[in-house]
Specification:
Methyltransferase, Methionine Synthase (B12-binding Domains), Chain A, domain 1; Rossmann fold; 2 domains
């Protein structure tokens, strides 16, 4: 069995090229060995998950990596976070509310939404994630079943952003619009568009999602725990990576 240093080095070495299965296996091995989840995130001597994704960002800035390489590296780290997130979120956070999250119909992008899920769970929210390409009917059924205080719609494409209005109209028709706050977000979404769509709130990134959700429910921010800070730092580096990907893709689209 590998020791602590070998696990941290392996997480670093496999995250950079996006070897998702190896990253997830090493993370599980570290958990089984009793390693602190924060240790695997922050690492030591430049090794670990967060240093690896920082290196990916640096390589992108130097022109050594491009969007595909950044995307598979982010997905590799996200796989590790699926194992670490419950361990970081379960300690000392009392439930503060329920939120239904989804990517709208016609849109298959989920990394940004998943980052928001991580941050919300770390802040004490119960998250019901409906996945991608979610129909208005499925959204409505989830709201009726789980009685959330908030429902969050994500769209990564300009062509799927109109589904915000469709979903809100579905809630209105069912007589549920006044019972739930609606938040929207995604790479092409702006606060102005969110207002025009009829949403109650807009967030440009995962950290802002938590702040806006708490504000909508009138919840005051409390002192953040070490585990919550570690989760926030991990999501922040993933968020920064996704923003670079979004900017690069937008630049390509503007030239086509």
């Amino acid at each position: 069995m590998p020791n602590r240093e070998e696990i941290l080095k392996g997480l670093y070495d496999h995250t950079i090229p996006g070897h998702a299965p190896q990253v997830k296996d090493l993370t599980q091995t570290g958990i089984d060995m009793g390693l602190d989840p924060k240790d695997m995130l922050y690492g030591a001597q430049g090794m670990g998950l967060i240093p690896a994704l920082r290196e990916v960002g640096a390589r992108f800035e130097r022109g050594e990596y491009f969007v595909p390489e950044m995307l598979i590296a982010a997905r590799a780290m996200q796989g590790a976070m699926s194992l670490l997130r419950p361990l970081l979120a379960k300690q000392g956070t009392k439930p503060v509310g329920t939120i239904v999250m989804l990517t709208v119909k016609g849109d298959m992008h989920d990394i940004g939404k998943n980052l928001c899920d991580m941050m919300l769970e770390g802040a004490g929210f119960r998250v019901i994630d409906l996945g991608v390409n979610t129909s208005p009917e499925k959204m409505l059924a989830a709201v009726q079943e789980h009685n959330p205080q908030i429902v969050g719609f994500s769209a990564f494409l300009t062509t799927t952003m109109p589904m915000f209005k469709v979903n809100i109209a579905t809630l209105e028709k069912a007589g549920l619009r006044d019972t739930v706050k609606v938040m929207v977000g995604g790479a092409p979404v702006t606060e102005e568009y969110a207002k025009k769509a009829g949403a109650d709130g807009y967030a440009p990134d995962a950290s802002a999602t938590v702040r806006k959700a708490k504000a909508l429910l009138g919840i005051k921010d409390e002192e953040i725990s070490e585990n919550s800070q570690a989760l926030a730092d991990a999501v922040a580096i993933l968020d920064a990576t996704m923003q670079k990907i979004g900017e690069a893709e937008a630049a390509v689209n503007s030239q086509s």
